[in-house]
Amino acid sequence: MFAFSRFLLYFTEVARQGSLRKASEVLHVSASSIDRQILRVEEQLDMPLFERHPSGLRMTAAGEILLNAAKNWQRDFGRVCTQLDDLRGLRHGHVHIATIDAINRGFFSSILQRIRSDYPGISFTLTTMSNIHIANALTSGDADFGIMLNPQSSRELLVKSFADLRLGIVVSSQHPLANLESIRFSHCESWPFIVPAAPLMLADPLEALINSSGIKINEVARTNNIHMLRSLVRDDVGISLMCWLDIVDEYRRGELKFIPLIDTVLKPFTLSLCVAPQRQLSIAASMMLRELESFFALMQSEELLA
């Protein structure tokens, strides 16, 4: 970027590679020129930025402080460039979205495809994280907004939109239960059951259902991976407990059936679109946020499954 000195470009690349030679190959600049720039600044600061070893370079505490500051400067400058593009009316920009794994399915990519079609100048980075890491990314400014499941209330997070998602029993489309419109958990006792294990959030409501119903499920498998859980149910290994969001794509293809549970002990999962309240979003991020708010309204009405 033109706003950053030659030294910062050299320094950050050496820090990334841990080697003058490797940085030289990436930057297409001689290793001696890179080393001169770093030595000059180390002399001005009167402290080393790297420890020099035969195996390579290792950052000192001073180097780590400078590298962190450089990353913040680059990130802030990127936002400034986006705001300048907004002033020019270019509708360009880059949006950083952090999501839980469950949302990264075909139905969500089709939403992003439609947004890109409406705003072709906007690009985005989509990063899958756990709830806690999404919250950290929002407060640190590494993500513009996040999609979280059952977020903890916090002054550092603002919920812009949400959708309550029912839990139910998921079966293959050929299963004898597939024609039911609703079901009680006690009716699942005689069927082979695939247990969703921690850290899947489905593990807690399943335990609550077992305790409240007093039944002993016929466990044939257990997995802590939602993709494997879907595959096992689709292949008729057994039935399982899932949120309807987990199977939207398979439902549309006629592979799986979602049967809502009517047990009163169950509470729906809440999918939330969150931002950091102190963060001022770019016009590009604000436009994408509005589109996703409409998507959440659609999910809340369950038109996605129509």
Radius of gyration: 25 Å
Total E-strand runs: 12
User: Going across the major beta sheet, what is the strand order?
Assistant: 4-3-5-12-6
**How would you describe the shape?**
elongated
Largest sheet: 5 strands, mixed
Q: What percentage of residues falls in helices of 4 or more residues?
A: 40-55%
Low-confidence stretches: none
Q: H/E order of the elements? A: HHHEEHEHEHEEEEHEHEHEEH
Which secondary-structure class do the elements indicate? alpha/beta
N- to C-terminal distance: 48 Å
Protein name: LysR substrate-binding domain-containing protein
Domain HTH lysR-type: 8-60
Keywords: DNA-binding, Plasmid, Transcription, Transcription regulation
Family: Belongs to the LysR transcriptional regulatory family.
Index terms:
306 residues; five-stranded mixed sheet; elongated; alpha/beta
Commentary on this structure:
This protein is 42% helix and 22% strand. It is built from 10 helices and 12 strands. Strand 1 (50-53) and strand 2 form a beta hairpin. Helix 1 (6-17) packs across helix 2 (20-27) and helix 2 crosses helix 3 (31-45). The longest helix has 27 residues, at 61-87. The protein is elongated and about 75 Å long. The two termini are 48 Å apart. It comes from Pantoea sp. BJ2. Belongs to the LysR transcriptional regulatory family. Keywords: DNA-binding, Plasmid, Transcription, Transcription regulation. One of its GO terms (cellular component) is cytosol.
Layout of helices and strands:
Elements: H1 6-17, H2 20-27, H3 31-45, E1 50-53, E2 56-59, H4 61-87, E3 93-99, H5 106-118, E4 122-128, H6 131-140, E5 145-149, E6 158-165, E7 167-172, E8 192-196, H7 203-213, E9 218-223, H8 226-234, E10 240-243, H9 248-252, E11 256-260, E12 269-275, H10 283-300
Parallel strand pairs: 3-4, 3-5, 8-9
Antiparallel strand pairs: 1-2, 5-12, 6-12, 7-10, 7-11
Helix pairs in contact: 1-2, 1-3, 2-3
